[in-house]
Design a protein that fits this description.
single chain; 263 residues; alpha/beta; Rossmann fold; seven-stranded parallel β-sheet; binds nicotinamide-adenine-dinucleotide; lipid metabolism
Length: 263
């Protein structure tokens, strides 16, 4: 049986469409009984996200650009007027200029390095600081999304690998700061997924096929499996887990070399 999220409510940030990892997580949290609010980036996404949010009974939808502190502040201000407390926040947000997600990492530029770190790492800290007052009385869960390009070299992942390493360290530092308030902070690390962000990485199709053919489970992650992991972490089932990076990749990360049939 799915662990219950009944009576819990929270904010899901990063749904762009029905392939988004944030959407898989939102559906699973909803199915487990949670009430949801959503944030999306810019009017262009509003028409996609609105019907998705409505289909889960949510009418709290906020346009948030995480590079803009005022935008994040306004969203949490609005959220706190509807819900004086929340139980979870999901941060499924990352960005790098596509031109630097292929070729040599050596060619990373300063502007894109800063921009990628700002959106993909710093924003989690800013969101955590805003979510904290809404969680500190009763405890809660903060979740972010990472990828194994943080600790292994994945060709083309480049600056995003460095950002994910920083994001995983951020997860541990936040977990330590917020642990005394019974707020748990964790990262989920799925294998490659066919999403907008995933498609921006050079050779995405090959990476997807390679993982499917070589992972111990001979399968890629699914939105359902990632969602199930989020429910585990956000529910009482994960009550003693914090500062963790949980892989949802069919076991791909344990490999030292491809399967013999693929050599
Ligand atoms: P996605 O494109 O569906 O989601 C990325 C989201 O980031 C979008 O909703 C986009 O609007 C948002 N975003 C980017 N810049 C923003 C800004 N300035 N302000 C607010 N929002 C902004 O792709 P996804 O694959 O679902 O990505 C979600 C998370 O999962 C990311 O952190 C990504 O790195 C991570 N992840 C993805 C994969 C994969 O293979 N797709 C694997 C592991 C981890």
């Amino acid at each position: 049986m799915m662990h219950s999220m009944k009576g819990k409510r929270g904010l899901v940030m990063g749904v762009a469409n029905d392939r988004s990892i944030a959407w898989g997580i939102a559906k699973a949290l909803h199915d487990a009984g949670a009430e949801l609010a959503f944030s999306y980036q810019g009017e262009a996404f509003a028409k996609r996200v609105e019907p998705l949010a409505q289909s889960l009974g949510s009418d709290i939808l906020m346009d948030v650009d995480v590079t803009d502190d005022a935008s994040i502040e306004a969203a949490f201000e609005r959220l706190s007027k509807r819900w004086p407390t929340i139980d979870f926040v999901v941060h499924a947000i990352a960005f790098s200029d596509k031109t630097e997600l292929s070729g040599r990492f050596l060619n990373t530029t300063r502007p894109n390095f800063k921009h990628s770190m700002d959106i993909s790492v710093y924003s989690f800290i800013e969101v955590a600081r805003r979510a904290y007052p809404l969680m500190k009385e009763q405890g809660g869960t903060m979740l972010t999304l990472t990828y194994q390009g943080s600790n292994r070299v994945v060709p083309n992942y480049n600056v995003m690998g460095v950002a994910k390493a920083a994001l995983e360290a951020t997860t541990r530092y936040l977990a330590n700061d917020l642990g005394p308030d019974k707020i748990r902070v964790n990262a989920i690390s799925p294998g490659p997924m066919k999403t907008l962000a995933g498609a921006a990485i050079g050779g995405a199709r090959k990476t997807f096929r390679h993982t499917e053919e070589n992972a111990p489970m001979r399968a890629n992650a699914t939105l359902e499996a990632i969602g199930g992991t989020a429910v585990y972490l956000a529910s009482d089932a994960g009550a003693c887990t914090t500062g963790e990076v949980i892989r949802v990749d069919g076991g791909y990360h344990v490999l030292g070399m491809p399967q013999p049939e693929n050599l």
